[in-house]
Predict the 3D structure of the following.
Amino acid sequence: MTGGIPLSIGNLTHLVWLNVNDNGLSGEISPKLFNHGSPLRFLFLAINDFSGNIPSTIVNCQNLTFFHAYENALAGIIPRNIGDLQFLTSLLLKGNNLTGTVPASLGTIKTLTELDLSFNRMEGVEPGSFTYSISRCSIYGNTLPCLPSVDLYGCKADPCTLCPIKDVSQIYNATISAEAGEVKFLFI
């Protein structure tokens, strides 16, 4: 398969699962693919050559549970309204050219358990906290300064005070304990 995703896929009103992983697809992801009220729950666009922004219309897929678009050439920011996807459990966007900050709205998704933003060009975390437990979070390989005080994995502490290394990008595996919970496998 070559080229982009046909726009006609956006007209499939009963489509729940779309997997085009590793197909050599390219071009921008059209906002017209995500119509209001779409029943799409599983969206797998990984290991292709998609470019451009992640369309903010992705939030029209209110039932989206898995969004995997890792190892593409996506650029720009993660849509600020991505927190509207309240059933999202897995967001894997590693290995792109995403910039800007990690949206605080991600921290409002109660169901989010897996977040991988590693190997992009992210520059920080928006003010706000992750108030729900994320069991797997990877953000290494970015240009992140020492993280501000955020609630990661239910661990209510400043990660910079939990480790003697001021450049947290040097930490690859760690177990951090705190009163509010225990963090295992912290990838920064």
DSSP finds one helix and 15 strands in the chain. The helical segments are 159-162. Residues 22 and 58 are 21 Å apart (CA to CA).
